[in-house]
Structure formats: C-alpha cells, structure tokens
C-alpha cells in the first residue's frame, strides 16, 4: 500500500529548517527499515532514500524494482552490481550537487559513515536521529487506527489459542498456534519472539516458549504481539489451567 505524503512532509518540514540539501536514509539488510517504510512506504530490506525539497528518490537492486512501484511513489534509481552500492549513492549525490546531508547516524554503521565522509569530502553531515524519533512519536489518526488493529489481531488470536489449552500441551505448541492465528487474522508478522512460560518458568523475565509441558494448575504467562502494516502491539496475560 502506497503511503500518504503526510509523514514524509512532516519530516521534511523539520529537517529542511536546518538548511540541508537532502535527507539520506540507508537501509542495508533492514538496518533502517523503520524510517524507510515511514517515509517511502517501501518494505524491502535493501535500499537508500535520497530526499530533496523537490525530489524523492529510492535506490535499490533488481530484487525490489517491481515492489518499489507497488509500494512507493518515490522515483526509482536502479542499482546494478558489481558496482558498490555506496558508489551508486555517492555518484547520485555528486550529480545533484548536494553539499549538506541529513542522516540518522544511529542507524548506519561507523564504516559506512566513514566511507561517505571519505568519498564526499566537500559534504557536511547533519545528524537527525533524534528529530526523526520526535516526529514519529506523534501519531496521526491513520497510525492510531493501525495500532488498534494490531491490538485487536493479537487479542482475537489469544482467544483462539485459549480454545486449545489443556494439560499436557507444550509451551511451544501454544506459541506456534497463537502466531498462526495472528497471521490468519491479517498480521504481517509477530511483533517479537512470543513468550509463553508456565510454572517455575514464569519467573523468567523473557521466557520464550520451550518444550516444557504445561501441567494442570500451573500459572501460564503469555507475552505476545502482532505486527500490522509496520506497527506492533504488545500484550501480556496470565492464566491457569484449572485451579492454581
């Protein structure tokens, strides 16, 4: 689904107050998939965004050329190996004569940052890590509705899971069924590793589901969530099979 431009425009309004020429977002194997999706709608694992006041560009390889057109309104620049990905980005920056770039230093490796500085000695870099977080922390109506759906999916899946709970079932079986139900209900994925911890394992802060059999009368801690359109829900419940 292609996003509305409101999120992108909110970030641009804040960033370009700093007198920068462009925003650069590098996402290598999901290193910054959150900002990439927030600004462009693209959900692939490998890309770079270059955003100027007038142009919105995405660079990616042939695995994602069709997907970009389906998910984003950004202008596609095709990256083709064996040339390095960073060299492709650098060439585009030079061709556009960009001299001051805004980026999230917290979301790129030191080696990539050092390489950019080395290859672009005339460029100045502005860290906007906290700015992007500030903008994203204020949710619009569409985001709030999406988050509500993520919660509803998790809640309905939990109700389905309770229907199969019985003494002798394994924690791992319950987790698998819960995750299966969330995906049937429309979740893109689980929000995090599902925690199901019964009996003595309930004392573990992050007791991921194990092969332990759940016995009658044991308390069971469940901590789970659904990811829906990039937004996560996070719920926790405790129940017993029979009398504790």
Automatic annotation (TrEMBL):
UniProt cross-references to Pfam families, sorted A to Z: Creatinase_N (PF01321), Peptidase_M24 (PF00557)
Peptidase M24 domain mapped to chain residues: 145-244
Source species, domain of life: Bacteria
InterPro entries listed in its UniProt record: Creatin/AminoP/Spt16_N, Creatinase/aminopeptidase-like, Creatinase_N, Pept_M24, Peptidase_M24B
Domain Creatinase N-terminal span(s) in chain numbering: 8-138
Record-linked Gene3D superfamilies: Creatinase/methionine aminopeptidase superfamily (3.90.230.10), Creatinase/prolidase N-terminal domain (3.40.350.10)
SUPFAM superfamilies: Creatinase/aminopeptidase
Record's keyword terms, sorted: Aminopeptidase, Hydrolase, Protease
Molecular function (Gene Ontology), one example: aminopeptidase activity
Designated name of the protein: Aminopeptidase P family protein
Organism: Fervidobacterium pennivorans
